[in-house]
């Protein structure tokens, strides 16, 4: 087990007060807090070696390029990609999905084709597909889920056909916590020749990821949910598929040669990295990966799982008017629930008065909320730096609210 | 029908005094507002329709009016108790007054009780939308009367 007190010391924000109370941060699904090594990396870059990458032939440019590319190598190992060229830096999960939809989708979809997504997708894994589908005359179809919040696998299998060109599913749901059986999904989809994109926003920091073993065609995630900076992330794609895809944006490093007769494009990964990239945040992202490696993803996940179990049992016992939404067998550390007769916004605001930060609302999964006939839920999502005492404080807060208003 | 005996300024000062008792404690303030929300009579289901929804509120707020003897009677409901509490405060200040009084009302209590900081910017914007809608009704009635 990790030493949580020791781990907490790496996060300056965790010792701050909010509304006169010690901060209890349970909104890690939205974004998690940053360790000092990540924050320092940003400052160091701008103070000590700010320089553009891949162009300048001077010392600073060399140093910046080295640190920047180091992150790519770290990420390659982190998800076990075959080559570092298969790692494309993006601004996050959303950009990664849009990139695939706008390039792979535009080149390969046509009238009557289908894109399968699940009912529990984040809007980021629905809307980009709707946009390209509308342009190409394709349709986006939702895979149904059970009341417990699991994909109904037999239904998914029935939906597969030669018309399905893309299956885009979330690895772990941000609103329910459900971990989807992506390995099985990928295998079935491939049998019909469909390409599979995995939205790893909620999984990359918590679950083991081996893209070669999974055999997914695309994997996308965001740095800010992995102790890294915001507006940063990456897209993994299989080399041969990325090579065949047309470029996304034009300009900068993605070019090999430009003339007014035509332009030839750079090789991977630069073909998809137009313009000056987000250098500082890429470097800081590398520090976040090192941080996870240092503490151990598995060890952190074990602590998170213990927190989830503890919080779930305590909630059921002490807040009987709470109803948990998402009771899948296999979950990441997300506890989503509603409380009878009290609106989720009101609960969120009352917890905030005690310095407890949770997320309330639809979590950018409106179709999922519609599936459950809900406007939204209260979501506590844990990270490795959270403690059992914090869970106690949270449940105490809820008990108090219910006593006053339930 | 009872006519409000205190003027708009006096009622606002009364609210400010009530909140003063809470000593700026955030939790007590929110609990108090929720309590006010729960005390506000429920709106009849038939009025809880999209046309009566106030635009610009994060939560749902339905507002309807009645015009009796030259004065406006407001009724409202919301799907959240905090929002309902907020609109109940506005009703306390503006109910049973002439359109002209409402149009000219300078509503200062919200800022004085420091509500912006307590409920956050999104709900504060929602509160501004409630005031706008209440004044809008007053304008409509003043044009008719
Ligand atoms: C499952 C899932 N997909 C996609 C996203 C979007 O990530 P980003 O906003 O970093 O692009 C999120 C973020 O909440 C998410 O949880």
From TrEMBL, chain B:
InterPro entries: Fe-S_metab-assoc_dom. Transmembrane segments: none annotated. Pfam families: SufE (PF02657). Residues 17-135 form the Fe-S metabolism associated domain. It comes from the Bacteria. Belongs to the SufE family. This is SufE family protein.
């Amino acid at each position: 087990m990790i030493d949580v007190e020791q781990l907490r010391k790496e996060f300056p924000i965790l010792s701050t007060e909010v509304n006169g109370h010690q901060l209890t941060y349970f909104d890690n699904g939205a974004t998690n807090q940053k360790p000092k090594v990540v924050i320092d990396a940003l400052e160091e870059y701008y103070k000590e070696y700010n320089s553009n990458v891949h162009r300048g032939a001077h010392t600073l440019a060399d140093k910046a390029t080295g640190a920047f590319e180091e992150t790519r190598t770290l990420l390659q190992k982190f998800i076990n990609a075959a080559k570092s060229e298969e790692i494309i830096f993006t601004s996050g999960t959303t950009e990664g999905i849009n990139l695939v939809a706008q390039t792979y989708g535009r080149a390969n979809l046509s009238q009557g084709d289908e894109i399968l997504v699940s009912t529990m997708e984040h809007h980021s894994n629905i809307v980009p597909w709707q946009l390209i589908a509308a342009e190409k005359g394709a349709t986006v179809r939702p895979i149904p889920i059970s009341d417990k919040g699991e994909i109904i696998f037999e239904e998914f299998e029935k939906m597969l056909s030669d018309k399905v060109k893309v299956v885009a599913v979330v690895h772990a749901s941000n609103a329910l916590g459900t971990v989807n059986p992506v390995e099985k999904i990928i295998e079935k989809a491939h049998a019909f020749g469909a390409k599979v994109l995995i939205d790893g926003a909620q999984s990359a920091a918590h679950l083991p990821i081996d893209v070669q073993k999974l055999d997914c065609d695309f994997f996308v995630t965001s740095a800010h949910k992995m102790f890294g900076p915001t507006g940063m992330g990456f897209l993994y794609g299989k080399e041969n598929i990325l090579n065949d895809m047309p470029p996304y944006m034009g300009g900068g490093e993605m070019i090999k040669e430009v003339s007014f007769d035509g332009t030839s494009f750079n090789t991977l990964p630069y073909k998809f990295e137009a313009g000056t990239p987000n250098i500082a945040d890429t470097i800081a992202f590398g520090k976040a990966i090192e941080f996870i490696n240092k503490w151990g993803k598995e060890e952190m996940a074990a602590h998170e799982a213990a927190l989830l179990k503890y919080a779930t049992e305590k909630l059921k016992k002490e807040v009987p008017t709470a109803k948990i939404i998402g009771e899948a067998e296999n979950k990441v550390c997300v506890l989503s629930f509603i409380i009878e007769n009290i609106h989720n916004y009101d609960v969120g605001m009352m917890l905030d008065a005690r310095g407890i930060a949770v997320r309330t609302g639809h979590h950018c999964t409106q179709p999922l909320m519609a599936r459950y006939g809900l406007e939204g839920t209260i979501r506590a999502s844990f990270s490795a730096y959270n403690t059992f005492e914090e869970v106690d404080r949270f449940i105490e807060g809820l008990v108090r609210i219910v006593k006053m208003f339930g | 029908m009872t006519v409000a005996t205190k003027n708009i300024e006096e009622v606002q000062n009364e609210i400010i005094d009530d909140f003063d008792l809470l000593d700026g404690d955030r939790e007590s303030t929110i609990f108090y507002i929720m309590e006010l929300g729960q005390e506000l009579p429920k709106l009849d289901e038939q009025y809880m329709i999209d046309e009566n929804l106030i635009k610009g509120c994060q939560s749902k707020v339905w507002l309807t009016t009645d015009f009796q003897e030259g004065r406006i009677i407001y009724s409202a409901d919301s799907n959240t108790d905090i929002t309902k509490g907020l609109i109940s405060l506005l009703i306390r200040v503006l109910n049973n007054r002439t359109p002209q009084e409402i149009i000219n009302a300078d509503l200062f209590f919200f800022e004085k009780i420091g509500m912006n900081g307590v409920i956050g910017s999104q709900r504060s914007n929602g509160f501004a939308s409630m005031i706008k809608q209440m004044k809008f009704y007053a304008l409509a009635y003043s044009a008719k009367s």
